[in-house]
Design a protein that fits this description.
This protein is of the alpha+beta class. The protein has six helices and five strands. It has one domain (43-201): Nuclear Transport Factor 2, Chain: A (Roll).
C-alpha cells in the first residue's frame, strides 16, 4: 500500500501542474476596433473627440460630439461661411443633426475616403474660450486635410470654427451651434476653402 501511494504522488503532481500552470497570454484580436472616444466631461474633450473621429473615420463618435435633441435640451445648428452660403444657395437651410449624419456617413465611406489615406483635423486656439458653468464658446482655427476622391474640392480646408457648447444633465458636453468663418492672414496668402464648402459637396 505504501509503495502504491508513492507511485501515485508523481501522477497527482503532474495533474496539478496542468490545472494550475500559467497560461500563455492570448494575442489581441486585430479585428476589434479600439476607439479613442473619451467621455466629454469638459469642452476641450469634445474637440479631442472630433479630431479623433477624423483620424479613425468614426462617424458615430463624430455625431456623438454634436447635441442631440433626444437627449439634450439643445438643438444642433450649423451656420456656414458666408462665401459657401452664396456659392451654394439653399444647401444649408436648416442644417441640423440629420444633415450632419448624411454628410459624415458619405464622407467616411470607402468611395470618398479610401482605406489608408490621410484624414486629419487640427485645431489652433483663435480666442481664449469663455466657459461659464454650463455653457462654453470656443473659437478655433481649424485645418482639415483629407485625401478624398471628391471632385472640385481641394484636399485641405481651413477656417475659423465658433463652437458653442452646453453641458447636459449627465455632465457631458456637446456642440449645439457651429458657425464656420473664412480665415485669412495679414498677407492674404491663404486661399483655402472652408469646411462649409466640403459639406455642400457631400450630400
Amino acid at each position: 500500500m505504501k509503495k502504491l501511494f508513492c507511485l501515485l504522488i508523481p501522477l497527482l503532481l503532474t495533474g496539478c501542474d496542468a490545472i494550475f500552470g500559467t497560461r500563455e497570454p492570448e494575442e489581441p484580436d486585430e479585428n476589434i476596433s479600439r476607439s479613442l472616444w473619451q467621455q466629454p466631461t469638459s469642452p476641450g474633450i469634445v474637440l479631442e473627440n472630433l479630431k479623433n473621429a477624423f483620424s479613425e473615420r468614426n462617424e458615430e463618435n463624430y455625431l456623438r460630439s454634436l447635441a442631440d435633441s433626444t437627449s439634450s435640451e439643445r438643438v444642433f445648428l450649423f451656420i456656414p461661411s458666408q462665401e459657401a452660403a452664396v456659392n451654394n444657395p439653399g444647401a444649408f437651410e436648416g442644417w441640423g443633426l440629420n444633415e450632419e449624419r448624411v454628410y459624415i456617413n458619405l464622407l467616411f465611406s470607402e468611395s470618398s475616403l479610401p482605406e489608408g489615406v490621410i484624414s486629419s483635423l487640427e485645431f489652433t486656439r483663435f480666442e481664449e474660450p469663455s466657459i461659464p458653468s454650463d455653457s462654453a464658446l470656443f473659437e478655433e482655427i481649424y485645418e482639415l486635410e483629407l485625401e478624398h476622391t471628391l471632385e472640385n474640392v481641394p484636399p485641405k480646408m481651413m477656417g475659423i470654427a465658433k463652437f458653442r457648447m452646453a453641458r447636459s444633465d449627465d455632465g457631458n458636453w456637446s456642440i449645439y451651434r457651429w458657425e464656420d468663418l473664412a480665415f485669412s492672414n495679414d498677407n492674404d496668402t491663404l486661399d483655402l476653402p472652408t469646411w462649409s464648402e466640403l459639406k455642400a459637396r457631400v450630400q
